[in-house]
Design a protein that fits this description.
This protein is α/β, with parallel strands linked by helices. It folds into two domains: 164 residues, Rossmann fold (3-Layer(aba) Sandwich), CATH 3.40.50.300; 66 residues, no CATH class. It is 35% helix and 26% strand. It has a six-stranded mixed β-sheet, with helices on both faces. It is globular. The site of adenosine-5'-triphosphate has 11 residues, from helix 1.
Length: 240
């Protein structure tokens, strides 16, 4: 099986807190990995490091077998959807403008249309981005991330503001991207049920990696889930 990502002994120390402590895991081609963890578990820190946004780490990260410190080429294969895309409410850009921003080369209108259809936002293409609901905005940012045909999609899932209907649509889109388009997905989520249903692998992060493996092995083990919930809860209380 082709290894897409190899993370070895990753440690990130901020001035006041060790956000990641000796984390190691691999992602194979075609995997759908759900990363779960309480607030402050280090999920965003992990993504920052993987995307080359934070280079102050110990350990090794390889994409497609190559150390990310050696080359930034791997970034071309990644579509990234941040937790909260930052833009002004009155930012005068439309849905199609935002998706077009994702293009690296010349504009390929056909490709834009295809992605808009795929994400169920074709009807919204001329609407101003700030006027859309959070669930609709999320789909626009996924479309933007997909416009370059990435091999990997990395999503930092927003937790609030999206209604159930949009969540269901979002999940069915992810499932289709993984199963039909064979995109490797790395997705951080607070929704354990959704991770159980969608992801074939799970990584439970809480500064250290509590568990990494097939989702079935985690979700069929009540004792493991209990231990993990307790550990997460303690960490949470400790920080608030
Ligand atoms: N740039 C930074 N400088 C210093 N500390 C940071 C920085 N970014 C994050 N931290 C700290 O590192 C820890 C991990 O934060 P991180 O944002 O990675 O967690 P998370 O799992 O993404 O949380 P959430 O689910 O709330 O988004 C937290 O204690 C946070 O306060």
């Amino acid at each position: 099986m082709l290894k897409i990502v190899e993370i070895e002994n990753l440690t990130v120390q901020y001035p006041d807190v060790k956000a990641l402590d000796d984390v190691s895991f691999e992602v194979n081609q075609g995997d759908f990995l759900g990363i779960i963890g309480p607030n402050g578990a280090g999920k965003s820190t992990l993504f920052d490091v993987m995307l080359g946004l934070n280079t102050k780490y110990k350990g090794t990260i390889k994409f497609f077998g190559e150390d990310i410190k050696k080359s930034k080429e791997y970034l071309k294969e990644i579509g990234y959807v941040p937790q909260k895309p930052i833009f002004e409410k009155n930012f005068p850009v439309t849905v199609i403008d935002v998706v077009r921003m994702g293009l690296r080369n010349e504009t390929d209108e056909n490709k834009i249309d295809e992605v808009l259809q795929q994400l169920w936002i074709h009807e919204l293409r001329n609407r101003r981005i700030g006027d859309l609901s959070e669930g609709q905005q999320q789909r626009v940012f996924i479309a933007k991330a997909l416009i370059t045909n990435p091999k990997i999609l990395i999503l930092d899932e927003p937790v609030t503001g999206i209604d159930q209907q949009n969540i269901d649509l979002f999940y069915s889109i992810l499932r289709e991207l993984n199963s039909k388009r064979k995109i490797t997905i790395i997705w951080s989520s607070h929704d354990l049920d959704a991770v159980n249903q969608l992801a074939n692998h799970v990584a439970c992060l809480n500064r250290t990696l509590f568990f990494h493996g097939e989702s079935e092995k985690f979700f069929s083990n009540d004792e493991l889930i209990k231990q993990y919930s307790e550990a997460s809860m303690q960490e949470h209380m400790h920080h608030h």
